[in-house]
Amino acid sequence: MSQKMLIVGGSGLVGSTLAQYAMPNYDLHMTINKNKITFTNALISKIDLLEDRLAIINLIKTLNPDIVINTVAHSSVDLCETNHVIADLLHVDITKDIAIACHDMGSKLIHFSTDTVFDGKLDRKYAEEDTPNPINYYGKTRLMAESIVMEASNLNVILRTSVIYGWHERSRFTNWIIQSLRDKKMVDPFVDQYNTPTLVDDLAKSILRIIEMHVTGLYHAVGKTCLSRYEFALRIADQFGFDKNLIKPVTSYEKKQDAPRPTKSCLDAQKLEKKIGYNFCDIDTGIGFVLNKSGFTKM
Ligand SMILES: NC(=O)c1ccc[n+]([C@@H]2O[C@H](COP(=O)([O-])OP(=O)(O)OC[C@H]3O[C@@H](n4cnc5c(N)ncnc54)[C@H](OP(=O)(O)O)[C@@H]3O)[C@@H](O)[C@H]2O)c1
């Protein structure tokens, strides 16, 4: 009999991509909130976690899933800086509800976190052993959630990831760059914010291996290349054949954001890669994958 998987946040970039990879081999259940998703072989529940905290607890207790994947987070780091109530509720309190319900049912919880738990001052990629020190409220709440999930059960997994992209309507950064450059509009990506962008398909495939191999603990799950958003845009332009003159570098000082961002929060995924025998791709391979999936003809 297939294992029962509940994806909390099934309409998101990671959730919907994972659903496609998992669908043939799992008994799939998903939650959505504002966005719809159509999956013929999945049971879908519409839940706004901020409005109805009991609904997710009841769903986990009724379904009794083998695995719960929690992809839910607020999409705006800046909003969390000014609205602590939402950040506390969505990232901390609701994560706790989910973690306790999973523990009670004996379900394995795979929970997403982010590179913003680090301050970005280290001049190398962060390993799992490095000490987190979030510099914005979003990062603080995500770090609190990590402890909650780790303490709830030794079956659980935390995946810290970064700038997720793919050929997907919710791949925000790459869609902004591709659509703007295709329409010959200027873009102004940050030249002083470095991350390790991660192909969403790599994440989905690695989650399935984590489940199959009964992996537990905290891991960095990111692509190989540490680069700025500006360099990322240039690499996209290279492969898609767009005009690079439309890409203007901007600094964090010039383009203010409400929440401070770590300068260099690149992560090292070697620990996970060795554990599951899977290599996350470098940025050029990832962009090539997106180009290929897009069916776009190079300009
Ligand atoms: N995307 C990135 O670049 C990135 C970088 C670092 C870490 N991560 C982490 O990776 C995880 C997955 O990211 P993602 O890009 O897949 O996120 P996403 O596309 O924004 O999806 C988030 C999911 O959460 C759901 N959701 C949001 N607010 C909700 C609420 N109040 N009640 C119920 N559901 C709610 C959304 O539902 P609806 O769409 O239906 O409203 C959606 O299904 C997150 O934890 C994120 O922080 C992402």
Ligands bound to this protein structure: NADP nicotinamide-adenine-dinucleotide phosphate
CATH superfamily: NAD(P)-binding Rossmann-like Domain
Order of adjacent strands in the largest pleated sheet:
3-2-1-4-5-6-10
**Which residue ranges are poorly predicted, with pLDDT under 50 across at least 5 consecutive positions?**
none
- State the helicity in percent bands: 40-55%
Mean pLDDT figure:
97
Shape: globular
Find the count of extended strands (DSSP E, 2+ residues): 11
Q: Please indicate the percent range of residues in DSSP E strands (runs of 2 or more).
A: 15-25%
Q: Number of DSSP helices?
A: 10
User: What is the multimeric organization of the chains shown?
Assistant: single chain
Q: What is the CATH T-level topology?
A: Rossmann fold
Brief overview, please?
The protein is α/β, with parallel strands linked by helices and 299 residues long.
Account of the protein in words:
With 299 residues, the chain is of the alpha/beta class. The protein has one domain: 3-Layer(aba) Sandwich (Rossmann fold). It is 40% helix and 15% strand. It contains ten helices and eleven strands. The chain has helices spanning 13-22, 53-63, 77-82, 84-105, 137-152, 172-182, 200-212, 229-240, 270-276, 283-294, and strands spanning 3-8, 26-32, 42-46, 67-70, 108-114, 157-161, 164-165, 194-195, 198-199, 217-220, 227-228. A seven-stranded parallel sheet has the order 3-2-1-4-5-6-10, with helices on both faces. Strands 7-9 form a two-stranded parallel sheet. Strand 1 (3-8), helix 1 and strand 2 form a beta-alpha-beta unit. Helix 1 (13-22) crosses helix 7 and helix 8 (229-240) packs across helix 10 (283-294). The longest helix is centred in the first third of the chain and has 22 residues, at 84-105. The termini are far apart. The model has no long low-confidence stretch (mean pLDDT 97). Bound molecules: NADP nicotinamide-adenine-dinucleotide phosphate (NAP). NADP nicotinamide-adenine-dinucleotide phosphate binds at residues 9-15, 32-35, 47-50, 71-73, 75, 90, 112, 114, 161-164, 170.
